[in-house]
Amino acid sequence: MHTYSLLEKLLFWPAVLDEKRLARSLAGKTILITGASSGIGEQLAYLLGRCEVQLLLVARREEKLRQLKREIEQHGTAAVSVFGADLREPLELESFLAWVCEQADTINIVVSNAGLSIRRSIMDSLDRHHDFTRTMAINYFAPVRLLLSLLPQLARSNGQIIHISTINTSLVPLPYWAAYQASKAAFDTWFRSAAPEWNARGIATTAIYFPLVKTPMIAPTAAYRSMPAMSAEHAARVIAKSMCTRRKSWRPWWLLFGELASVLGRGLLERLTPRWLRKKGG
């Protein structure tokens, strides 16, 4: 459990969650979570595991999923089914989709959480085209394919799609994050473009724009270790609460100021950043 500093308490206001209300609203529903073996997805599975729901969990690490299933079924009330797959691989993605159809006739909620982050200079990526294809594969193409497949079920159940995004899609793009930011922005734009069509058919859509979250995905980036970060447990409560409220979006209270700064200060930032990079390189 990540203990918040005073600054983090100011940045990340508590997500007040009525777990009894959550249990009542979700009773009997089938919930699919991608990227469920660690971080936000894992904590969400533990939280929902205390409700009478059917959880369908997918991630690359099948053994970790099986451990998660054992723990939830030992201490919780949810029925849990797991599938190990790398959703970047088309054949594994198709096998997973076939498995989902076998597990449940109706999907009520999809939490599109699986993702990949890469921090690397463009000049260090000249022979690493796969950095861009693999981030697009998991952050864009896989969730698009997943949702296209499940939309008929979601429409029948008046279901909900919860898209786990990032504040970066609302801010000025930063150096070293081209692969990650482009792939996240691609799916976010696709999701917001498609949402009105889904809403017209009774499907609720929720986009959650998280700040930095303390998960294994950010561990390789040394600069993040001293930066304020939301806990994965806190993020899970935000997602769970959105299942009760079915609100359109969630974002940290301070993101508006970041968006204004991105618009008003874009020209200045674009002039100063190359100077900073040259100085750093020197």
UniProtKB/TrEMBL annotation:
Gene Ontology, cellular component aspect: membrane
Keyword Kinase: no
PANTHER family membership: DEHYDROGENASE/REDUCTASE SDR FAMILY MEMBER 7B, DEHYDROGENASE_REDUCTASE SDR FAMILY MEMBER 7B
Family from the record: Belongs to the short-chain dehydrogenases/reductases (SDR) family.
Top-level taxonomic group: Bacteria
Keywords, in A-Z order: Oxidoreductase
Record's protein name: Epimerase
Single annotated GO MF: oxidoreductase activity
